[in-house]
Amino acid sequence: MKGFKLTFGVTVFMFSLLVFIPLASILVYSFSLSPAEFWEIISADNVRNSFITSIVCSLFAALINCFFGVILAWTLVRYEFKFKLLLDGLIELPFALPTAVAGITLSKMYSNTGFPGKWLSKAGIDVAYTHLGIIVALVFVGIPFVVRAVQPVLEKLDKQYEEAAYVLGAGKLTAFKRVILPEIMPAMLTGFGLAFARGIGEYGSVIYISGNSAKEKTQVVSYVIMQKLNYMDYAGATAVALLMLVISFLILLFVNIVQIRQSRHTNEL
Amino acid sequence: MGYKKKKSTRFLMITVSTLFVGLMLFLPLVMVIINSLKKGFEFYLQAVSTKTVISALKVTLLATVITVIVNTVFGIFASILLTRFSFKGKQLLQTLIDIPFSVSPVIAGLAFIMMFGRMGWAAPFVDAVNNAFGWDIKIVFAVPGVVLATIFVTFPFVSREVIPVLNAAGSDEEDAAALMGAGMFTIFRRITFPHMKWALLYGMVLCTARALGEFGAVNALSKTRGETFTLPLEIDALYLSGSADSITAAFAVSSILVLFTVVLLVIRCVLENRSKKAQEEQKRR
């Protein structure tokens, strides 16, 4: 087919100019740091803590999203009920709602003057300005990744195998564990990986509810990079960004491997 | 007994799902509106019509329009390249294009500072161009930087929606048309474009939504309120000034973006139904 040169040229040119070269600028600059300097920046208390906070909170949020994401996907695929369309449409909200709007709203809701924050703090649970708050924000931004990954797989899933399991005397739970879960596992892992990656890099929706206290260890990595940028500490910002890029690249690699194995698996069927 | 059991599972699943969506997703949306009207409607109108808000709205709309155009052009070319041709490094290119999805928006902002900022390697080029033409174009901490950052963050949105659709449609029709002597642009106009039409629109809607709300990347690159601020930055500034009035104003400005979001989500829903119907029709043929 004709047009290879044109499409290849335009695609590579635009990608290089708008994404690749700017991103490479970070790499180039970070090479001017010596390993000792790099290590000193990375091992500083606030940087190390921010990585731990971001990774652990994103992990918890992604796990919670896997649990509710599968329930939501299941409900949307298998049942007909009132407001189903509304529910389905709202799943996409975190993709479309500006992160800063989500951030200030969640922060207000879970502070001790908002709803449900007022009740929660009466019950002794503080959400805003704690790690719990960060997790709540990350559950909000991450939920569509899991639902939208699992939903199409459930839609295609042949009910035969499930029914066979019932006929053979399996209970609901056994059927789910032995027949359905293995089928949706790769999709769930993909959703998990995407939600996890998004969580580690998340900025807007987290920074208001997290409180950003170095003492309480509620600073996330993106916040630390922004802080360094505001102090014109470009070496520091670049070093932290580089480590974060490596982590998100590893997660992306994991997702790609899962997807390749998944497509092999479906081709075999 | 078995039937009853099934019904109770159904009830449980629907209840959990509804509660989750209601509390986690719907409630925040309602809270924006409630908080924005806390000081009455007059205050609301005043809050959304200040000079800085109008300026931020203009910058936001400008950045969004340019971003959607650029990313749509890229989406069309990239999706044709990645579905209609095979070449060395295709897999790599496909993975690289998705990078902006998994990179923190703050890193996107940092990237342009490292490129065009005072110490960036491309700064001398910009200076040279400015000197040669007598211009005074600034990129970092100015509107061009805001536009570039917004493009970066939403770069793969359109191509990602179009690629699966073109893959599913296959290239038989294009090959046949080429055999019969149709030119490149005729093939695109008559065959490829009609295939990708709905997915393209769908991607553009998603891209618009994200571009309107981009915050992290823009936050690193825009420092002047009333000049280079976008709506999310204006919201941030209002919220962080901390007085009860300014917080209510922050929610009032947020409600503009919520309105955009809801409209875009509805359009998205309609488009999805349309594209499903279009696909079914194609199958029937």
How would you describe this protein?
- The complex is a heterodimer of chains A (269) and B (285).
- By secondary structure, chain A is an all-alpha fold.
- Helix content of chain A is 80%, strand content 0%.
- Chain A is built from 13 helices and no strands.
- In chain A, α3 packs across α10, α8 packs across α10 and α10 packs antiparallel against α13.
- The radius of gyration of chain A is 22 Å and the shape is globular.
- The model of chain A has no long low-confidence stretch (mean pLDDT 90).
- Chain B has 285 residues and is mostly helical.
- Chain B has helices spanning 2-36, 40-47, 51-84, 90-97, 99-102, 105-116, 123-133, 143-154, 157-169, 172-179, 184-213, 216-221, 231-241, 244-284.
- Chain B is globular and about 70 Å long.
- Chain B starts with a helix and ends with a helix.
- The relative contact order of chain B is 0.14.
- Chains A and B meet through α1, α3, α4, α5 and α6 of A and α1, α3, α4, α5 and α6 of B.
